[in-house]
Amino acid sequence: MEPLIAFDEVGFSYLVPYGQVTSFKEAVHQLFSGRVFQRKEVLRNIHFTLYPGECLAVVGRNGSGKTTLLRLVCGITEPETGRIVRRGTLAPVLSLGAGLEPELTGLENIHLLSALAGFSQEEEKQLPARVMAFSELSPEVLRMQVKRYSTGMMARLSFALAMARKPDLLVVDEALAVGDAAFQDKCYQAIEEHIRRGGSLMLVSHAAAEVKRLCNRMLVLEKGQIQFDGSPDEGLRCYQNILSEAPF
Amino acid sequence: MIRLQARQVWRLARKYLFIRYKNTAFGILWSFVNPLLLLLVFSIIFSQAFPSVENYKLFALSGIVIWNFFPGAMGTLIQILPDNAPVLRSYPVAPLVLPLAAILSSLLHFFILFLAFAFLLPAFGWKPSWTLLGIVPGMTLFALFTLGWGLVLGTLNVFFRDVALLWNTLLPAIFYFTPVVFPADLVPQGLQPFLWANPLAWYVLPLRRCLVENEWPTFAEWGVMAILAMTFLFAGLLFFRKLKKYFIAFL
Predict the structure, then answer these.
(1) What is the ipTM of this complex?
(2) In the Cβ-directed half-sphere of B176, how many Cα atoms lie within 13 Å?
(3) Which chain B residue's Cα is nearest to A173?
(4) Domain residue ranges in chain B
(5) pLDDT tens, residue by residue, A205-245
């Protein structure tokens, strides 16, 4: 079986402003000393493969590189060193509501975002019906401008769009915290349904119960490196140890 | 891949075109008010100042209509990356798609506006002719030139937001430095080289002649317009490509 995602010694660093500039004098001084930006390493030596049917939870402290890892998986950023191989279709749910244009109607947004998310033209045609079915937003609501939507309605629209593609790999970044309980429940049902169909999952989460319910494998990230790769139960213990021993 | 990106550009360009006048009561009329108001000011101040210009109102208005494309498109291009930070952070979209969509929507907006002005210009003594068609390739080259500049400044603006502020400060100076509302031959001999060192003059002057004086741009002028557009576009693309991997950390 061929892997959906294969990371080969991937490294990534950001360029960030050098320190905090608080005055104009400092800014000028920095500009002339040539120390405007510095490199900050986010991920180092990331090596793992994800096979179809695997449901991978990614845990780690704030700033350990979880979101960057997901962005690399989705192809939103390119790795600096190493190589990433991707196969199959992928649906990113990195932040619900991102990219929605408030001035356009729900329906118009569906078409806009389907292009941005990389859906094919054939897929786009089937979208409105599927989104309507999943999101339980009525046709009247979908013809309304998105700025009149509640946060929960926007979340519904976004998540429905991602799920409508029936992707091979679903990538979710702590995005499901919004929306009411009924919607969250529906999201979990949809993810479970996706898993039953044989789909794979990559999930960033801090909720142990959620991770145990959905995932069969876990990565623990610490300081940009994979600290642990294995079963969720052991992974959670490992994560607890990291949290307790090293002060933030 | 290219087909998908073309679709992304088209969808975004349509969006920008569409939301420009959303929620305004007078819609596209606003795009008339600005040039006409400028015209009013300039014709009050300058109509006696340039006796060499036969029909100053038409001269100034056509110049302003062509010029207005530039600050409008540049303003969008400079802000397009910060404005779309959530999109760049959450979707696997090539960043270049955004400026391409912005310039396409600006160009389409220009042509729509221009069609509307074509009905207004005869009131100022304008007689249309076939040379009008020169506006289409001419403005397209102007748009490519603008895109090149916009890619450079838009990229810089990701790292230093001062760029957008600096640009807004410089813009009025650039306007008066370009022969939009005054005839080019008014510039003293000694300063003429500076006038022609301004690439914008190479677009505004031939395109206005093409519009108002029913004269096709010369072969040399087409050449300069094309070379300027290609040079700046190439430089802009190179610059953008080199730095795009750092965008996400700064947006």
Answers:
(1) 0.85
(2) 5
(3) B90
(4) 2-250
(5) 888 888 888 999 999 999 999 999 999 999 999 999 988 87
